[in-house]
Specification:
By secondary structure, the protein is mainly α. Helix content is 62%, strand content 4%. The model has no long low-confidence stretch (mean pLDDT 87).
Amino acid sequence: MTSSAVHPVDLEPSLIAPGTYTSRRLQVRLDTATVIAFLVCLLYCLPAALIVPGLTFAGRPALVVAMGLFAWWLIARLSPTLFLMGPQPLRWAMLFYLVSMLLSYISGMLRGLPSLEANRQNFTLLVTFQFIGLVLMAADGVNNWDRLRKVLRVFVWAAAFMAVIGLIQSLFEYDIAQRLIVPGLEIKAEMADFQKRGDEGLFRVAGTAIHYIEFSTVLAMAVPFGLHFAMYSPAKAGRRFYAALTAVIAAAVPIAISRTGVLALGVAMTVMFFAWSWRLRYNMLLITVVALGAMTVLRPGLLGTLKSMFLMADQDPSITGRTEDYEMVSHWFSQRPWLGRGPGTLIPDLYIMLDNQWLMSLVTTGIVGVLALAALHVTCIAQAGMALRRSTAAEDKHLCAALISSQVVAILVGATFDSFSFTTFAFTLALMSGLAGAVWRFTHPTRVIRTSHVKRLFE
């Protein structure tokens, strides 16, 4: 399969003010897509424990860039020559999400918070602004399909880099992530160690992520995009290159020895199954069988350990611990059902480790917060789905299906770990959510006369 030709609609001029036009394919030195790609590199290639000195985890370099994107989006809204206006449903979903967080924040303040909870609530609100900044700038700021694909290529490269770090950790029992410390940054917390798992002498690794589950889940979300470029890159060498990257990413998912990671990969492939032809489905099944055989040879005992984790889940302390938390969740929910205790206030060191994002949101932000989070997922799936139906090129349809898979994965894994507590996962989701809004915009029926992207930062 080869890449489609340049979209003719991207060559149309865009009205930015009365009598003033610009091209959607205007080349600039530093545009939104470039900044987002840089953010992705920082998010995946630097250890998650690295922060700007004197800051919290909101001071991760990638998150600092995200805050800059939020400021950029707000400033761009003030000038029609910077921002090309047009409808964008994702803005309303993010407004609902922000309002729910602010109402929950006020509810927490009125409850009266100890200093530790108050600080955590402030931190969560700050990260929320960073999250929203990435979502909105990806949705409104990426100019065209070409720039969107370049962002996703960088995403696949960065995910492959993280996967290689994890594979080195697993194969050589050597934490190479310790060598990625950048001068000028400081380590906020201990990096994930090599946690023993199973009876075969196996251990879990986290790459550059802060946790093993996060590592495997974000890589699982990257696999459909790697497959996309392995199928649709214009050159044969490019297709082989991305096929190799995808193989590396997929191989790194099980080495975290995480049920959630395996579940995420299975869900992502199930969603993509419906976007593939029967021939491609058979090919992917054959590749999967070969990969499982190679894994059995290269990492003996890994598949058996993963199998026992699923078959003996009812005897796993981590599973029984999750179910035992339901009574406490019911108690807290009954106290403040609508707005919750306050975002981020359910601190594990003070209360319990609640490995369920949906229940975490229910306790901390209440029914309103859960509805806002669900609205974000539904909006993104609907926008990517509409873009899939509107698209005429097979490449675009496949890319939209990959964006849908990331949302479905996020919905399901939210029931297995507190996903928004891990910034690499949360901001990967923010990127995919924003790009779902972008593809909706690209395929809008009146695309020839309207758009919604930031014009430029520097000429």
